[in-house]
Amino acid sequence: MTKIRVMDETLANKIAAGEVVEKCSSIVKELVENSIDAHAKVIMIRLEEGGKKLIEVTDDGDGMSHEDAMLAFQRHATSKIYKDDDLFFIDTLGFRGEALPSIASVSRTEMKTSDGSVGTHIIIEGGKLLKQEMSDARKGTTIKVTNLFYNTPARLKYLKSEQSELASCVSFVERLALSHQEISFTLTHENSVVVKTSGRNDLLKTIHEIYGLQVSSRMLEVSSSCDDFDLYGYVCKPEILKSNRNHMITLVNDRIVKNIDINRAINDAYYTYKPDIKYPIVVLKITTDPTLVDVNIHPTKQDIKLSKMDVLYDLIVKTIKNALYQALLVPDAMERIPVSNPIKQEIVENKIEENDEEYNKESTQTTFDFAATEENSKEPVVVNPEMKKLKLYPVGVAHGTYIIAEDDNGVYLIDQHAAQERVNYERNMCALKTKEVHTTNLLFPITIELSGSEFLTVQKEVPHLREIGFDIEEFGMNTFVIKAHPTWLREGYEEESIRRIIDLIVGGISSIDPVKFNESIAITLACKMSIKANMHISHEAQEELLDELCACDNPYNCPHGRPTIIKFSIYDLERMFKRSMN
Q1: What Cα–Cα distance (Å) separates residue 332 from each residue in 214, 336, 565, 568?
Q2: What's the CA gap between 287 and 289, in Å, rounded?
Q3: Who wins on pLDDT, 451 or 296?
Q4: The whole model's pTM is what?
């Protein structure tokens, strides 16, 4: 008797369901994507108990004939591709033909569908056909899924709480609404509307319908293109950052994707505009030739591979960075960001990261390549024109830390340490990027003794230290002597700055990436060179600091991402003191 046998169709579908149907949102994803592929303009999703009791999706799409409806529940039956070459030109969200049979094998699935002629009603439970009959002929499809995982107890046990499953479903429907703003989406849970969009084909309006006015009013439009890619979308001002990546929504040919390289490009574009542990709200639509995209590497089709990723990286960084450069990013102190929908507010508290381990392991460390971006940018960037027009006059200091300044439009609070840290950082970066290095000799050379392992680590970086202006030589066992240093080191803090640089090298910074090496030096020394909180500075020094801050490329944040300046408009002040009652 042979050991190898062909699997029963029902067993094969259950195995496939383990990959395709991970949780309730997986079913919502597959059913709604089928509706989108069927050219639906109105899609309604109804959930009960977070989807564990009921998932129902109704659309006004093309619908199916009786024959197609029966074939749809057979494994690998699809209307999306027909031959091998079609795999290279995939322009639909689904194409494998695994979703419906997989869902039906682990639930009770009921479908009513019609192409406008004859309606079909089908009920399948655990992969077995219970009913097929003619029904009403309303064009479109309704699929109802109940008793999820009733015949696979192990899978049922690992479903999360109702609130977590609902949060995952809501998050995915929001992303779908943003990717297809021409479709009206309605998601209800226990008869309460959680998501509702108008389908007016306006991306900013859809962002407003999903996130509310406080977010949509702080979004910046971005648009750019090159030979291989077109970009369009909206990115947030740094004042409304989030604590996770859930709101970095990237779409490739209208498909929601989670790609580490794309997310890194977005994160790098916000370099020094935000802390590393915070993430922006971004909706970025990427359009490219389907032959440059491989979506057939994971059952969920959210993980993709892109050809010419280096070109796309440069385009994303340049586009977002230009938008931030040209916008006035001084946050208004009186504006807050409430969550307008109480149901959403409850969901947000329980929001979880997507179950994609590789995605969640993505490094938060920024690795922005200034040189690469500048080299690939052919158009001149107008850097903060509105900010450069500001003329701020200091009128006092609060708590020895915050400079109070004013102009014709309002009152400003400036963190003196963060502001000078930004000024020093940009000055240091400018000095480090220049080809002409100016040095000054030390009256008394500085001797630095290290352990054996530390000495070997620093020894590898000696050529780069010499390149940026340090006269450094070996001086006996495990010792270096420094006789000269670049002129941009702060006077009086030369030895402390040099020792900080050596500590950075010992801590793991490497000249293999010279941009990162220079950035780390610039950031560290900018902090050490800056005035501290509760340190008094003269009125003239305050004026000089404000002028230098307004002249910076990014005057809004210190190099660690903390804000430098906050504004109280005249209207805000009049409203606080009841001079204005509007």
Answers
A1: 12, 9, 9, 6
A2: 7
A3: 451
A4: 0.70
